[in-house]
């Protein structure tokens, strides 16, 4: 579940337009006495016919008069549903139908939870495997201003059925030009482990060969540099560049790649995927915040590229409209487009030499997503705290059509669109 869960959580995190957030809650940062802020939220996320997620989160921040703050957060993800196995449609009519035929694909369930192997599917549908998992994550951070310098350090731990992550992070911000310019430098490290249910299978095999049951390490080392500038009384602009290098076990242990008959295109087998053991990721995020008379506009663009051949562009727009003193609404638009990894293939031709690396994971394929949503914030009369409700609709689909797909597979939609919805209810109170 580890890789799949990471991808889902990444999708749930909307592109932030806040520049070099210090970690100090705005409602309490200026207090001259110690205060505490509680942030609680409940996320409900669902992909049509696929994954469902429920995630309660609680964060407590203690802010001291000198600006120092200590924060702790606990989150629990309950993830169930189904995910594409990576296999192509069988192209064969299942047994019992008027035309007869034979079902050929069987896939180990993601995370080994629920569903077992593959089930009889519509021969024109993308095969999926069922799964269920629970992830518990804890984070902590400490911030302490020293004049114009503000360091932040933190730590992270999470555990699920087949994945464990331990990490640390730090950032140093420096305010210059009477706080009109902020420079930031930071980094983080993760020491993760993947331990697939049923053991680690031999790459590019038929899923029956287990080469070990030990934990597979995955290390991430990353850093960022950035600058934000107050251009006018209303306009803030920032640019941040980051780079992360991953090493270790980067293969999804539950994904397979179909073998196609070179003439008919019918699937006649499958092999486990195999990905490189290193990945160098880079991105540049440009963000802008513009304060109108009452409303605020947030706009950002993120360009990403890596040595797997994936490039992407993401544009994110939010507009906060003040309805009254205790209420606002914030519409949200986002568009994301990505190219495929160099080793992405919908399927392989039976009898042809196997490539060194191959994956049919749609997350590494050519795709784009469009997001439409809005957040409503309000305070109840004579009641403390602030409530927020955010609802979003996401449409994910693929683009482009490979020329190596043959026979019956040309009749199928190998990258069908997915409708995704999310709802987040949050509550914040300072005391």
Could you give the order of strands across the largest sheet?
1-2-3-4-5-6-7-10-11-14-15-16-17-19-20-21
Strand content: over 45%
Q: What do we call the CATH homologous superfamily?
A: monomeric porin ompg
| Low-pLDDT segments | 4-30, 97-109, 112-120
- Overall CATH architecture: Beta Barrel
Mean pLDDT: 87
Would you mind describing this structure in some detail?
There is one protein chain. Residues 4-30, 97-109 and 112-120 have low confidence and may be disordered. The protein is 3% helix and 54% strand. The two termini are 39 Å apart. The protein has 1 helix and 21 strands. A hairpin with an 8-residue loop joins strand 8 and strand 9. It has 431 residues and is mainly β. The chain has one domain: monomeric porin ompg (Porin), CATH 2.40.160.40.
Task: Describe, in short, the structure shown.
The protein is an all-beta fold and 431 residues long. 3% of the residues lie in helices and 54% in strands. It has one domain (2-430): monomeric porin ompg (Porin, Beta Barrel).
How are the SSEs ordered, and which strands pair?
Layout: H1 2-12, E1 35-47, E2 52-63, E3 69-84, E4 128-143, E5 149-160, E6 163-176, E7 181-194, E8 200-201, E9 210-212, E10 216-230, E11 235-248, E12 256-260, E13 267-272, E14 278-291, E15 296-306, E16 311-324, E17 327-338, E18 347-349, E19 367-378, E20 386-398, E21 418-430
Parallel strand pairs: 12-18
Antiparallel strand pairs: 1-2, 1-21, 2-3, 3-4, 4-5, 5-6, 6-7, 7-10, 8-9, 10-11, 11-14, 12-13, 14-15, 15-16, 16-17, 17-19, 19-20, 20-21
